[in-house]
Write a structure and sequence with these properties.
Keywords: Oxidoreductase. The chain is of the alpha+beta class and about 200 residues long. It contains 5 helices and 11 strands, in the order βββββαββββααβαβα. The protein has a 4-stranded antiparallel sheet.
């Protein structure tokens, strides 16, 4: 099925605690000042999305569109946008929802901070960048790490112990910590030694 650039087709949650979502057209609109329109190439469905749909975890105004994590390409930008141009690719995690659609309008100041730029350099493909967002943000928030830089920071003299390094969130925490200047010590089974080196 092909869609024109003047239509957008999201997955609407029309009332609380219902499945499946309804696929219905939505206005395409135009990005305002300091906004960009993204063509979504990959959208991550994480655990909170299921809870929001099935259990109404938080109150929502219906109809609504769920989804937080995406990777895609800028197709249009509003006035005063200089950081992003048409064709730029990146990944982002948006605390507001509305990602389960073909096109998403994002505020520039909430879109690609250090992490999104760093992540897309590390992961060339949109689908992998999108899937890693939840793990990377979880690692950054829950381990209270210094912000990573590129190139990596000089050693800070701080050490981080990560128990069970090969897991998804923990292996992302290790990469963030190294880029943030930490010395990292981790545990792993013999079959994962090389992976954690």
């Amino acid at each position: 099925m092909k869609f024109s650039m003047t239509t957008n087709t999201p997955a609407w949650l029309t009332v609380a605690k219902t499945t499946p979502s309804k696929i219905k057209p939505a206005p395409f609109g135009t990005p305002c000042s300091n906004q960009i329109r993204i063509e979504n190439h990959a959208i991550d469905i994480n655990q909170v999305d299921g809870k929001m749909q099935h259990d109404a975890l938080f109150p929502l105004i219906h109809p609504t569109i769920l989804g937080e994590d995406l990777a895609g390409e800028v197709i249009q930008h509003g006035p005063h946008v200089t950081r992003f141009m048409k064709g730029n690719r990146f990944a982002t995690k948006r605390e507001e929802e509305n990602q389960f659609q073909e096109y998403t309008v994002l505020h520039v100041d909430m879109t690609a901070g250090f992490l999104a730029v760093w992540l897309m350099r590390a992961q060339r493909r949109c689908r992998w960048a999108c899937l890693l967002l939840l793990e990377v943000f979880s690692a950054r928030i829950f381990f209270h790490l210094e912000l990573p830089t590129e190139p990596a920071r000089k050693p800070t003299g701080k050490t981080l112990l990560v128990w069970g390094g090969p897991s998804s969130v923990r292996s992302n925490a290790i990469q963030l910590a190294i880029a943030g200047g930490y010395e990292v010590i981790t545990s792993a089974s013999p079959k994962n030694f090389e992976y954690c080196m």
